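## retry 2 of 3
previous attempt timed out at serialization; input unchanged, resubmitting
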Amino acid sequence: MDIVIAYDIADTNTPQGAARLRRIADVCSSYGQRIQWSVFECRLSPTRYTQLLEDLHDHINPTADSVLIYRFPGTIHEHRTTIGIDKGHHLGTTWII
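## retry succeeded, writing output
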């Protein structure tokens, strides 16, 4: 399944908030590709999706932070409209570095 994750971590000007922000970004990076500062695209199996949810729950402050996950019935590319610069990120394509 294709999903988009967007998050807002509270109190990032404190050491605790900054640490949560880094952990959430690391979790999301391990499952998908960053497309904006706090937005990631992911292509996951149902098992990996369940693990992602557990990992996110382990690292947020549920009374202050917000994580939104949008699931798509097809691929993200079928539902995406880009206005302005397309940075060329295409989920599921191979990148050679």
